[in-house]
Amino acid sequence: MDTVSEIMTKKVVAVHPEMPIESLILLLIDEAIQAVPVIDAQHRPIGMASKSDLVFDDYEWAELRDETFWLQRVAKLPKGLETEGDLYLEELLRSHTVKDIMSTEPLTVRPETPIVEAAQLMGQKHIHGCPVVDANGVLVGIVTSIDVMKWVGRKFCVDAQAQRTTMTGRLQM
């Protein structure tokens, strides 16, 4: 039986709840990741912070929701602001922290959890990433829906490799 330990990412990018939102956004952009576990001082997951949490659904800043490319815009904040809206956005991003937007009580799995079980749990909860913890609840990895998809591809889609090569635009002569 294949387990989470075989597909999880062991070098996890994690954050603390006191991190400013601005820093979280830049971290997600720089690391090209969708979400990060939020950990306490003992490295135990206490939440998840994702790009979906940054949509500002239930927050006082909900009017920013329609900002088309706000994630890319925040990366430009230190270079100078020109409009009142930009100043407001900058203040919100610098005055709020991860704890203001994170999802609490994260679903966690253990390294020995079967991959199929982890995939079912993530599907039921409609999440794309799940912290992996040891017996003491300490963060040791993260498993994502992409990790599961890669596992499915390697395990069950071997015969489709020729089709994939053709579909990606490489000509077979």
Give the DSSP E fraction (strand runs of 2 or more residues): 5-15%
What is the residue-averaged pLDDT?
Answer: 81
The strand count comes to 5
User: What summary fits the major beta sheet?
Assistant: 3 strands, antiparallel
Cα-based radius of gyration, to the nearest Å:
19 Å
End-to-end Cα distance = 39 Å
CATH architecture: Roll
CATH superfamily: CBS-domain
Protein model, in words:
- The structure is a single chain.
- This protein is an alpha+beta fold and 173 residues long.
- The chain has a single domain, classed as CBS-domain (Roll).
- The chain is 36% helix and 14% strand.
- The chain contains seven helices and five strands.
- The strands form two sheets. Strands 1-2-3 form a three-stranded antiparallel sheet. A two-stranded antiparallel sheet has the order 4-5.
- 25% of the residues are buried.
- The model is unreliable at 57-69 and 75-81 (pLDDT under 50).
Give the topology, please:
Layout: H1 21-31, E1 35-39, E2 45-50, H2 70-74, H3 84-95, H4 98-101, E3 103-104, H5 115-125, E4 129-133, E5 139-144, H6 145-156, H7 161-167
